[in-house]
Amino acid sequence: MITFPNAKINLGLNIIEKRPDGYHNLETIFYPINLQDALEVTRRENNDNEYTLHLSGSPLEGEPEDNLVVKAYKLLKKDYPGLLPVDIHMYKHIPAGAGLGGGSSDAACMIKLLNDKFSLGLSTGQMEEYAAKLGADCAFFIQNKPVFATGIGNLFEPVELSLKGYHIILIKPDIFVSTRDAFAEIKPVRPAVSLKEIVKQPIETWKDSMKNDFEDSVFKKFPEIAAIKDKLYDLGAVYAAMSGSGSSVYGIFKAPIENVEDKFCGCFCRQRALE
Ligand SMILES: C[C@](O)(CO)[C@H](O)COP(=O)(O)OP(=O)(O)OC[C@H]1O[C@@H](n2ccc(N)nc2=O)[C@H](O)[C@@H]1O
Ligand SMILES: Nc1ncnc2c1ncn2[C@@H]1O[C@H](COP(=O)(O)OP(=O)(O)OP(=O)(O)O)[C@@H](O)[C@H]1O
């Protein structure tokens, strides 16, 4: 069984308050984009190991046990001992440490895949609960539809929003921003106007009203990332922003841009039609 975990972008991100558990309540719009990894699970021929992880594509640091797909397998195995040994084949395309939720998406897709393959009978809500144990924004990828998210990024309300017809350019410089460190730099504040209202306004207005709270501190530390956002506006983006805690930056355009890779040499650079 094979599946293609996709990335997300954050349209705006307000960090509202620090919680007693150290996490932060926030509000954001999660929007899925068609930049994908590939994830396949097959039944292991012999039962020597519970699982083996075969990784290809862009290299990932860490041991197999650190990988969120393995964590997802182990999490379900605790409650469903009937899960059989598996070979996990993963091709990484979504850059890690990018604010694109690549690892979170892999984990959520693993839960959905194991649920289907082994007929576990989990409901959408149950899969979201398992996913939320693996990462704050993991649960979003279970339904994978544009949502207004609150809490720590795990409570969702549907939003009426379609960016179909627009094109996105995604740039990821060779800079790793730790999500934990990025949160530590923030002074949380409740926004005067909620993103839920701002996103209903025409996209042309977002430039002046929709903000990612991580940008100030991350741009200060890494001016190269701020320069990418400026360049996307120079190229004609209707809206440009950093996604999540960085380091990726995206621009939304009315029409595709030619030879875009040449304009961002040295960076991961992809252009896609939005759906
Ligand atoms: C910043 C976002 O990319 C926005 O979409 C996500 O909220 C990050 O979600 P994630 O990568 O799944 O985050 P996790 O792996 O759960 O958390 C990494 C670290 O970020 C901090 N963290 C994360 C989410 C949150 N709402 N508040 C936090 O303070 C915590 O210190 C945590 O230890
Ligand atoms: N399957 C995986 N794919 C990518 N990273 C993984 C995976 N499993 C574990 N990780 C670890 O998770 C960390 C962050 O990965 P991920 O790509 O999800 O973060 P991100 O791009 O910052 O996304 P976000 O913060 O928006 O969830 C990396 O340090 C990486 O080593």
Any chance you could write out the topology, listing elements then pairs?
Elements: E1 2-3, E2 6-18, E3 24-36, E4 38-43, E5 51-57, H1 68-79, E6 86-92, H2 102-117, H3 124-132, H4 140-143, E7 147-150, E8 155-158, E9 167-172, H5 179-184, H6 195-198, H7 203-209, H8 215-221, H9 223-234, E10 239-242, E11 249-253, H10 260-263, E12 268-273
Parallel strand pairs: 5-6
Antiparallel strand pairs: 1-4, 2-3, 3-7, 4-6, 7-8, 9-11, 9-12, 10-11
Helix pairs in contact: 1-2, 2-3, 8-9
The site of adenosine-5'-triphosphate (ATP) has 21 residues, from helix 1 and helix 2.
Can you describe what's shown?
A 4-stranded mixed β-sheet has the order 1-4-6-5, with helices on one face. The protein has 2 domains: 2-158, Ribosomal Protein S5, domain 2 (2-Layer Sandwich), CATH 3.30.230.10; 167-273, GHMP kinase, C-terminal domain (Alpha-Beta Plaits), CATH 3.30.70. α2 packs across α3. Helices cover 29% and strands 28% of the residues. It has 10 helices and 12 strands. The model has no long low-confidence stretch (mean pLDDT 96). It has helices at 68-79, 102-117, 124-132, 140-143, 179-184, 195-198, 203-209, 215-221, 223-234, 260-263; strands at 2-3, 6-18, 24-36, 38-43, 51-57, 86-92, 147-150, 155-158, 167-172, 239-242, 249-253, 268-273. The chain has 275 residues and is an alpha+beta fold. Adenosine-5'-triphosphate is lined by residues 60-62, 66-69, 96-104, 106, 137, 179, 244-245. The active site is at residues 8, 137. Catalyzes the phosphorylation of the position 2 hydroxy group of 4-diphosphocytidyl-2C-methyl-D-erythritol. One of its GO terms (biological process) is isopentenyl diphosphate biosynthetic process, methylerythritol 4-phosphate pathway. Pathway: Isoprenoid biosynthesis; isopentenyl diphosphate biosynthesis via DXP pathway; isopentenyl diphosphate from 1-deoxy-D-xylulose 5-phosphate: step 3/6. Residues 67-142 form the GHMP kinase N-terminal domain.
